[in-house]
């Protein structure tokens, strides 16, 4: 009677182990988020302080708090430094954090949706589609949606590219890692060729040079008036993905298992493809196509918090924000006074990481098909 009421000793041991593991996982997640939050504060401070004009960290915080209306100290900085921090560097740092966080969570979700560890917006041609849409608006001067025309066109291009890659890679109801990557590379190459053709044939020389620089990815030239849209897209994306984290976990077990658990996989994928394309389009319109952030961050943070998307998504967002802020700091200081496009530096980091992932998967024999 006692065993029937309380369970067998073995069951009790398993339950205690699960409880202990869950507690350890929560502790590790809390520590990781705390460390990343501290790193984000330090990174943002460095982004505001480092540049052609160095501003001491103490003055940075004084200027920021003064701009927010909290005059806790007597201003001891020049008006020029305040302008540099508030009007030039602060929007740039914030865009870097927003873009890095957004690309990281998009990559995390895409890897789950297509069950491919190599999936991310840049490699799957999504960024190329968004770039083509945005450049088309610039070259042809389309203003159908007013100030939002650039973001709308980038969203349409991103969604079209993602659906095209997915349809091309899917044969017999299955997708393999190799077909997905090859389809993404091929479609990205075609879209990039069309984009280059637009730039070569346009009669707006100055705009062509500006767009060419933009296609390499960069955070320069941003101002406070344009930050609300990528920030809103990021909050929307993270909010929806956190709500759908359990369904993303189900997809990792395969479509059949997810369907057995009551998930309408086709509808779920379609809705998230639209959401991810929207966020990607807005981010690309704001910062240009910046690659490999969405590839690296999910894999790195899983080493610390495991594979549960309820943990991976917020951790990847913080990690992506920290990474891109430092990449931008390096971009504007390594070859100063010349500025290197931040997309070049992320590619230098992400290219070797991509090759390492491919070698790791080849050793494991992970060219598995998904339904």
From TrEMBL:
Superkingdom as given in the UniProt entry: Bacteria
Entries under InterPro entries matching the protein: ABC_BtuC-like, ABC_transptr_permease_BtuC
Region annotation Disordered: where it falls in the sequence: 1-24
Chain segments annotated as transmembrane: 29-50, 93-114, 121-142, 148-168, 180-202, 272-295, 340-358
UniProt-recorded name of the protein: Iron complex transport system permease protein
PANTHER family: FERRIC ENTEROBACTIN TRANSPORT SYSTEM PERMEASE PROTEIN, PERMEASE OF ABC TRANSPORTER-RELATED
Membrane topology: Multi-pass membrane protein
Gene3D superfamilies: ABC transporter involved in vitamin B12 uptake, BtuC
Pfam families on file: FecCD (PF01032)
Compartments where located: Cell membrane
Homology family: Belongs to the binding-protein-dependent transport system permease family. FecCD subfamily.
Keywords: Cell membrane, Membrane, Transmembrane, Transmembrane helix, Transport
Lineage, broadest ranks: Bacteria, Bacillati, Actinomycetota, Actinomycetes, Kitasatosporales
């Amino acid at each position: 009677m006692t065993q029937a009421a309380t369970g067998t000793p073995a069951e009790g041991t398993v339950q205690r182990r699960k409880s202990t593991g869950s507690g350890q996982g929560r502790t590790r997640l809390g520590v990781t988020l705390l460390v990343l939050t501290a790193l984000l504060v330090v990174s943002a401070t460095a982004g505001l302080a480092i540049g052609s004009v160095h501003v001491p960290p103490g003055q940075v915080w004084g200027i920021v708090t003064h701009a927010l209306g909290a005059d806790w100290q007597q201003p001891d900085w020049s008006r020029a430094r305040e302008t540099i921090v508030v009007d030039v560097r602060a929007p740039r740092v914030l865009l870097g954090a927003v873009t890095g966080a957004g690309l990281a969570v998009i990559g995390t979700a895409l890897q789950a949706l297509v069950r491919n560890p190599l999936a991310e917006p840049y490699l799957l041609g999504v960024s190329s589609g968004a770039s083509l849409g945005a450049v088309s608006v610039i070259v042809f001067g389309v203003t159908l949606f007013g100030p939002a025309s650039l973001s709308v066109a980038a969203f349409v291009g991103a969604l079209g590219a993602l659906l095209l890659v997915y349809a091309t890679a899917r044969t017999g109801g299955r997708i393999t890692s190799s077909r997905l990557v090859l389809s993404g590379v091929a479609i990205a190459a075609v879209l990039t060729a069309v984009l280059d053709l637009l730039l070569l044939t346009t009669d707006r020389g100055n705009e062509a040079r500006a767009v060419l620089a933009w296609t390499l990815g960069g955070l320069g030239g941003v101002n406070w008036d344009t930050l609300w849209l990528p920030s809103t897209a990021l909050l929307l994306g993270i909010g929806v993905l956190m709500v759908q984290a359990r369904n993303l976990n189900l997809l990792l077990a395969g479509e059949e298992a997810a369907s057995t658990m009551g998930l309408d996989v086709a509808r779920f994928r379609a809705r998230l493809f639209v959401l991810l394309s929207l966020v990607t389009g807005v981010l690309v319109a704001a910062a240009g196509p910046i690659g490999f952030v969405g590839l690296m961050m999910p894999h790195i943070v899983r080493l610390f918090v495991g594979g549960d998307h309820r943990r991976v998504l917020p951790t990847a967002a913080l990690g992506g924000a920290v990474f891109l802020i430092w990449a931008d700091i390096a971009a504007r200081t390594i070859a100063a006074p010349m500025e290197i496009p931040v997309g070049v530096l992320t590619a230098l980091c992400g290219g070797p990481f991509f090759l390492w992932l491919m070698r790791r998967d080849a050793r494991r024999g992970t060219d598995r098909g998904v339904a």
